[in-house]
Structures are given as C-alpha cells and as structure tokens.
Design a protein that fits this description.
Length: 310
C-alpha cells in the first residue's frame, strides 16, 4: 500500500448480503456462452479474461457442496456484480485520462515535438482503453441479467446454507467490494489482518536467531497463529444435511509453518534501479493462500487498495 493511500474497512452480514441489482443498459451482440450445468461436482465460473467475459468450465466445487449447480449459480451472480464495479471504475478512469490528455494537447502552447508526440501517444492509448472497457462494460451488462436469473432460481434455504461458502470461495476470483470515491475497495476476511500480523511477527522474531529455543513463549505464539487460522477456516464448518457434506476445519502445524514461510522476508532485485532490498508477500496474496488452506484447493490471487471485511 502506498504511503498516501487510505485503508477503508467495513463489515458485511454474510447471511443477508446479496449482489446489487443489475443496471439496465443496451444489449450487446457479444456475450459469453451460458454456463453448463454439470451436476458432477464441477462448476462453470464466469471470469474476465483478456478484457472479455468467459467461463472456466471445469472448476472443482468446494468439497462440502452437494448441489454444485446451485452453488455455481450463486457464485456467478456475486462475481458478475463485482466485475461490473471493477469495469465501471476502469472505464471512468480511462475516460478521464483521455479527456485530460486531449485538454493538455489543446492547451499546449509550446513547440516541442517530443512533448506533442507524447501527448498524442497518451491520447491514443487512452482511446484504446476507453474502447476496451466500454465493450467489456456492455458485455457484462448483457450477460448479467441471465446470470442473476439463474441465481434467483435457487431456493432461499440453499442460498442461505451456501452463503458463507460462496463468500469465501468468491475471493479466489475477485476481491472487489464496491466503489468508494472512484476506487475499488477490497474484501478482507475478518481476522485476516490479525493472522497476517501474527505470522510476520513470528517470522521476524524467530527466522534468523538459531539460539532462540522452542520455549513456552514461542509455543504460545505458534499456537496463537494456529488458532487464528482455525477460526477463519471454521467459517466453512457445518454438519451434513441435504445441501452439504459435513466439514470441520482444523489447522495443522504444517499449515502454520507454510504461512510463516510465506511471509518471511526475502531479497528482491529491482530491475529498473539495480537495487536489492528485502521484501515480503503482501496481505492480498497471503489471504489467497489462507483461503486455499481452508478449502484445500489451489489459490488464485486478487488484490486491491481498499478493504471491506466479509
């Protein structure tokens, strides 16, 4: 996070939070092929890839989910709303960049060919971005009603049962948490900051000092990290019923060791300056790894500057 950026946090009630209603926009000819219902534990997940909507059609549903098609429908409704927000912000920014560059060129009174060429290049690049994000915005607006209609078919009891699972699983694909002052906020799982701080503190304290024994204080610190991780993963817990398998997450020692290793400082080379400085993995990437541990599935990274607890 940059020095002058602010950190916005809020909390959502995951038992009642739903995707915002779709904004009506003119339909576009281009839209992704509809999701395929598999019924075999696999789901088709809507994603933005190469500035266009598409589906990953062979995604493994979370272990505890029994009605994978319903889960996929609920997940995609959440994601399409987030993509709409992300694209709206990008489109607004690109339009402003274009307007500012055109104004700068119009008002430029100098005769420096290099400066003029730079402004024209900036205008050209902004025009490309405006066209790209406008097309994606229209594509999302076209696909969104159908995606949300599929989610609306899911029974309220199923939606309620799957809400905490959808909330956490969706963060593998998008952490967008709405718009604040023209910027995208980021969903951060409740307790994630505390877990990250505990892991970084432990890594810094015990990494380089072999003389520090495995004493009561160190054991307590390690156990505290394990408890924090278990608390996050326990949000997926539940008894077996008509909609889900039983699930009872308990963090293992190897999970704690992996998280500590993940946030341990490492040397990083800056290609532009040639400088070498220590660095560590940031919160957004850390959260994806934590969720992968909780779901026991591979992580997909996502990041943003603003944060909303979920």
């Amino acid at each position: 996070m940059k020095k002058n950026e602010k950190n916005t946090s809020a909390t959502i009630d995951q038992t009642t939070a739903t995707a915002p209603a779709a904004t009506k926009k003119p339909a576009a000819e281009k839209k992704p092929a509809p999701a395929i219902k598999t019924g075999d534990g696999k789901i088709a997940v809507v994603v933005v890839e190469r500035d266009s909507l598409t589906y990953y059609k062979d995604v493994k549903a979370p272990t505890m989910v029994l009605k994978s098609d319903d889960f996929g429908a609920l997940l995609n409704a959440v994601l399409i709303a987030r993509y709409a927000d992300e694209t709206s912000v990008k489109l607004t920014k690109s339009r402003k960049t274009l307007a500012d560059a055109e104004k700068a060129l119009k008002e430029y009174a100098g005769s420096d060919d290099g400066e003029i060429a730079a402004l024209k290049a900036k205008i050209a690049a902004a025009q490309v971005n405006v066209k790209k994000f406008a097309a994606l915005d229209t594509e999302i607006a076209t696909a969104r009603p159908e995606i949300e209609a599929e989610a609306a078919k899911v029974g309220s009891d199923v939606a309620t049962a799957y809400n905490p699972i959808v909330t956490l699983f969706s963060l593998f694909y998008s952490t967008a948490a709405g718009i604040d002052d023209g910027k995208i906020k980021m969903y951060v799982v409740r307790g994630m900051h505390d877990l990250y701080a505990a892991c970084t503190h432990y890594a810094d304290q015990y990494e380089n000092d072999a003389a520090i024994e495995w004493d009561a204080t160190r054991k307590e610190s390690f156990a505290s990290i394990r408890e924090k991780l278990t608390a996050i993963g326990s949000r997926l817990n539940g008894a077996a019923d008509a909609y889900r398998k039983g699930y009872n997450f308990t963090a293992a020692s190897k999970d704690v060791n992996r998280l500590i290793a993940y946030v341990t400082r490492y040397d990083k080379f800056a290609r532009k300056t040639g400088k070498i400085a220590d660095s560590r993995n940031k919160l957004a990437a850390f959260q994806a790894v934590v969720l992968a541990i909780c779901f026991r599935q591979k992580a997909v990274d996502g990041s943003s500057r603003y944060e909303v607890e979920c």
